[in-house]
Amino acid sequence: MTHTLPAIAPGRLPALLAAMPKAELHIHIEGSLEPEMVFALARRNGVALPWASVQELRRAYAFTDLQSFLDLYYQGAAVLRTEEDFYDLALAYLARAAMDNVVHAEIFFDPQTHTARGVAMDTVVRGLARACMDARQRHGIGATLILSFLRHLSEREAFETLEQALPLREHFIGVGLDSSELGHPPEKFERVFRRCRELGLHLVAHAGEEGPPAYIWQALDLLHAERIDHGVQAVHDAALVRRLASERIPLTVCPLSNQKLQVFPDLRQHNLKALLDAGLAATANSDDPAYFGGYLNENLRQVFDATGMGARHAWQLAHHSFEASFAPAADKARWNELLLDAFERHAASR
Ligand code: ADE
Ligand code: ZN
Fold first, then answer.
1. Rounded CA separation 265/341 (Å)
2. Among 18, 99, 181, 330, whose CB has the most other CB atoms within 10 angstroms?
3. Catalytic annotation on 209?
4. Domain that holds residue 208
């Protein structure tokens, strides 16, 4: 799309990044669980914690790779027990996202980490869905849910999870695939995703976060994923990059996550700018903001600072986030108008 964008003075870029409307397409609701809320919910539910204080828990957020993070992430999620807990968690995230001018969020949830502890699927989904409804009234932000299968568990467990969730089908728009990537290729879930496709669910999958380009090919060809979550390893395969560009397959990239999990230990090495410049439909997202040091605008601020992206990249990221969302076309058109308004408000002549 070739838009004539108003010129933005470099000094106005940070304000524009913060103010522009945007969609968030890669956020794990359990990853928005702030340490303060871990302690508050542990107290409310009588759950014993292995950390003496919020500060001690925060100090444990020093990750060497994806698995070192996931170990802590699942431990933290263990304080979530009641429908109210899931409601409070999601409403807090949506209030925070609205402050970053996120107009629409598509939120992952990991039911298996909760059902394994004896929490009912109903409790999880109803709490999250009620928060999504209330957030629209209270904070003017739209939100939908995507059920994510844990790929370190079996195909059979994924099928069981799908069966448990189907009575609540109206509350989620699609399915995803997350957790430990290496050793758990997308092909493991081909039949589960085929079933989800027959059911008319949207399909996305984490691929190419730590895993090889082959996992991205599998997510596309075997799972029929409509978006690739992360996908930053695609750059190691020129044919894959050409395919992602020509088919406009969105990548939901998460800069601070990639830095904290040592995918790009130095944000200056991050390839988001290169992906955009190669014509890919990349978006920026926060992944697990409570663990990685920032919500969406902080991700934008730091990655723009580190890689020298400019106003056109800002427009591309926001525009791609709308186009890649599973929202109705009329919403996308409205958000694109708001995006141009934001550019005009921040233009050089103003
Ligand atoms: N679950 C939560 N965050 C994740 C990530 N970055 N990769 C895989 N699974 C996740
Ligand atoms: Zn993720």
1. 36
2. 181
3. yes
4. 10-30+83-345
